[in-house]
Amino acid sequence: MRAVTIQTYGDPDGMSARDVPEPRVEPDQLLIGTEAIGVGGVDAVIRRGTVGGGAFGVGHVPGSEVAGTVLAVGDDIDDGWVGRHVWAFTGLGGAYAERAVARLEDVVALPDGLSSVDAVTIGSAAPVAHFALEHGRFVAGARVLIRGAAGSIGIAAVELAARAGASAVAVTTSSPARGERLRTLGATEVLDRSGKDAALRTDGQFDVILDIAGGPELPDFLERLAPNGRFVLVGVVAGYPPPDFGTSLFGLFQRSLSFSTFSLDTVSRPDLSRVRRELFDAVGRGELHPVVHDILPLERAADAHRVIDQGEVFGRIVLTTS
Ligand SMILES: NC(=O)c1ccc[n+]([C@@H]2O[C@H](COP(=O)([O-])OP(=O)(O)OC[C@H]3O[C@@H](n4cnc5c(N)ncnc54)[C@H](OP(=O)(O)O)[C@@H]3O)[C@@H](O)[C@H]2O)c1
Asked: Is the domain of 182 the same as that of 222?
């Protein structure tokens, strides 16, 4: 079968499509004929070799989410799954391929009418947004700021917070045009990446900050939390925060702020699958809008990564196999 493999960690030129052996199906796994494959920021981080120290090895097939049709099942799985249209999490690799395997607990049957492209656009990202808002004890009426809102997680967070009755949904983004697109999805205030150029620049306005960016500017954003505000670090697309970021937190001691990280790994698989199904259904009702930046053939995975590296993506890039 055709799959994209990483031959050299670093820039996207080190990955290319080639013929590889079919994946082996373990007893608790399903074999999926992939139709759409989500290209995530994590894939780019792994490809650059900045995590795992290249531990994924030469020949690693990147990618973690696919949608397609079940072709076969392992010995422990009901063969009624064969032929079903599903979304699946494949782990930290294995998705950029014509066929992929996933464990049953990581597979969700898709509702009628949901395309494979839409499924991989929100299948991972929207649950992260949902549970991160929950982790930040978001309630209707809360004022929310989402840093790094133009990615697939941020876009889902904007829509979910707006629909759930946030009294303000502020976002950071890198251009007015991207800000306008975020407004159409529910953002009420648009800030630049530093958060300093808009009317909303006084301290202490937000009850919840969802931060997908992290990086050196994170401490500045702690000041924007209201008393009892909750800061939830979801991603680090701008790098790790400075090691002394806690100093800013102590400087605001009298506001009783909370700082936390959030990882989907701490959500139980049944809860995750239940919410994922609900979010897929929400797409069908028109309540959640998968935002696809571009659709490229599998063979052009390296081009997809170049677009990510150039910081141009708004939403999700998707690879297709047909
Ligand atoms: N917590 C979890 O369970 C979980 C699960 C999956 C992924 N993640 C993490 O989530 C992140 C990827 O999320 P994603 O795919 O939604 O994000 P993304 O598309 O990679 O990036 C989101 C946005 O961040 C902005 N951005 C980029 N560099 C920035 C910088 N230096 N400073 C401020 N903003 C910057 C960009 O928008 P603008 O150009 O408009 O500013 C970009 O569109 C990764 O860090 C990944 O590890 C976390």
From this structure: yes
